[in-house]
Amino acid sequence: MPTANEAAHGLSVTDRAVFRDGVGWVPVSGELHFSRLPRARWAERLRQLRAAGITLASTYVFWNHHSSTPGEARFDGNLDVAAFVDEVEAAGLQLILRIGPWCHGEARNGGFPDWVQDANVAHRTDDPAYLDLVAEWFGQLGAALNGRAQPGGPIIGIQLENELYDRPEHLLTLKRLARENGMSAPLWTATAWGGAELPDGDFFPLFSGYADGFWADPEQEWDPSFRAHYFFSHEWDDPGVGADVRAAQGFAADSGTGSGETATDLHGFPPATCELGSGMATAYHRRPVLDADDIAALANVTIGNGSAWQGYFMYVGGVNPGPGLQETQATGYPNDLPELGYDFHAPIGQSGDLHPSAARLRVQHAFLSAFGDRLASMTSTLPDAVPAGFDDRSTLRWALRSDGTQGVIVISQHQPYERLDAVLDAELRITLEEEEIALPAVDIPAGTIARWPVAWNFAGARIDWATASLLTELPGGGGDASTLVLVAERDIAPVISIDGIVHTVVPGTPIAAGSGYVVVLDARDADHLWVRESDTERMLLRTAAELSWGAGDLLVRGSAPVEVYDPAARGWRELTRRNAASASAISGADAENGRGSSDAATAVNLTAVRTATPVPEAYGFGGSRHRAPVRDDIDQHAAVFRLDVPSEATDPTLDAVLDIDWAGDVAELRVDGRPVDDRFWDGERWSISIVDAGITPTSEVTVHLVPLPVSTTIALPSRARACLELADQQLGVIDAITIRTRGAWGAVN
Prior knowledge:
12 helices
C-alpha cells in the first residue's frame, strides 16, 4: 500500500480512472531509454515527446549498462540518470522509472550484468543471496538519483521487475528494498499480462498490446494474440507478449490468445497500458514492419475499450551504448537482435526523424488531453452486433465511451495485413440513460479511425452527433468565445447536428454553437496538426514542418510556415520566426514531419572496397529461429563500401542524416573501423545521424553489407520478400546513400 507521503501528492486512482488534483486525467506515456541515446540529444528528444502529446516519459534503467564489474556502477555521461531526470523536469514532463532489476527491453540477460547472470543465486526470487545483489544495485541507483525519486518530484511512478508472473511476494520485497534505498513514488506499477499474479492494492497493473511481434516463430502467420487488439473488447490481458521468454525461463503463465471476454483481474485499478506497440523491433528471424494506421488503429481501439492510461513502447528509438549488450540466442534468449541499433520503427526513430505514426497518434493524444476529465467518467460499451470472429472483415468495429448522458463513438475499421471491408449505409444507434440517438446512415470506408461525439455538451449547446473526430477545445478568455475543434475523416463528408439542427460542414468554417463555435478541419490537415499544452494555455498549430517544445519556447525545424488558430478571429494566422533555422548547405530540402526529400538530397560517393562472397543458407538455428551472423561471419561475407562524407555534413549545426536505401541481410556502419550502428534488412530506409555516429571530417566511414540468400526462410515483410524474389541467388545491394540536413531548431511566436 502507498505510504502517507506517497499518497499525498495530487494523484489518486479509482477502478475507472486516474485523477490529478481531483480532475480526471488520461496520462500518455512514451518509452525512451536514456542510456540508448546520446546525452546531447536528451533535451531534444524530450521536447519532441512533449510535442507528440506525451505527458509522461518512461525509461528502463538497465543494470548491465551501468555495471560491468561487481561492486562498481557508472552514472556518468550517457548513463547519468540524475541528469536525465532533471532534463525530464525541465521539459515539463513527468517520469515513470522502470528499475527492474530484470527489465528485458531486448537487453542482454534482460539487463542483468554477466556477473549477476552467472552468480550462483536463484534469480528473480527472494533468495537472500540474490537480494544482496539487488540491494547493492538499488543502493547505487538510489545514491545516484540523490533524492530525485521521492514523491513531489518529477518521478511519479516506479516499475519493479518486468513480466514477473507468479511471485507477488518478490515484488513486495523489491518495493521494500527500493524504499530502503531512497526510491519512492506516488505510483508503483507492474506488468500484468500473461495472467501475472500481483499483490492486491500494492501495484498498478499495466498491460500491453502489439500489432505484431518479432517473438513469433518465422513460419507463424499473424497470431491471434496480435489480431485480438483490432477488435473492441474488455479483456486486457495479452498472454502472447513475452511468451517465448517466459517459456525459456520456466514461468507458468496464461497461454491463451487474449481474444475472449473473460474478466481480467485489475486489482481495483482502471484498465491501463505501459506497452502499446508504437512500432516493433526487428529480430533476425522475423522482421515485422507496421504502417502508421496499424499503430493508430491499435491505440484507438484501446481508447474505445476504456483505457485510463495510454502507455507506448517504444516511442523513441536508440542505439545500445556498446557492443554485446543485446538479446541473443547465445545468452540463452530465444531471439537475436541487432547488436547496436534499436530503432524499433518508433514514432521518433533513433536518428530523431519522425515516422508517419507520430502524426496519427498526435491527434489522439490531443483528444485525450482536452477531454480526459470527461473520459474519466465514461465507461466502455460494446454494440450488440460485433464481429463473429477473427475472419469477419465486414462487421463495423466500434465501441462507445459514455457516462450515460454524453459519449464518444470510437471506430477502428482497420487492421494490418488484411484489409477490412467498407461498411455501407452504417446505422449507428446510441442508447444513453434517457434517450436513443440515431445517426444518419453513413458509408464508413476501410481504414477509418475515428472518435465521434454524441450528446456532447459544449458552451451551452449540445452536439447531438457528428461524423468527424473530436480533436481539442480552445478555451475562450477576455470575452473571446470557446472553440470546439473536430477533424474530418478521410472520404467521409463531415456532418454535424447541433441542438437538433443538422449542418453540412464546410471544413474550416466555424459554426455557432451556444456561446462558442465549432470548427471542423479538413482531413488533409490531420497530419499537420499540433496542440501545444501548458498550465496556462492551449494552442492549435498547423504546419508541415516539425515542432517541438518544452516548458519554454515553441521551436520549429524546416521552412514550412507555422500557423496558429486564433479563436477570436476564427481563423488561422501565421506565426513569426524569431530566429530562423539554419539554411541547408547540402540539400536545402524540407519535408513533412521533419524528413528530407530524397529527390533533393545530396548523393554520397561510394567506393567498393570488397565484393561480397557467397553466403550460407543459414547460420544455424535455435529451435525454429534463425541465428544471426556473428562478427566473423560479417567480416568473411560482407561487401564493403567506403563513403565519401563531405566535411561540411559533419557540422553539428546542420544536423545531417545519412539515408541508406539498401537490400540484403545485415548491414553495419563502421567509423574508423568501429561498428557504430547496424540493421537487419526489412525493406525500410536506414537513417543515421552523422553527429551521433561520431563522424568527423577525418573519419573513414564504411558500410559492411551481408547478402541474403534467395532461399532464406526468414520472415520478411511482403515488400521485402517481393524484392528478394527478383534476385538471382543472393541479394545484397545499395541503391543509394544520400545526405539530408535538418538544420537548427528555430523559435517562433
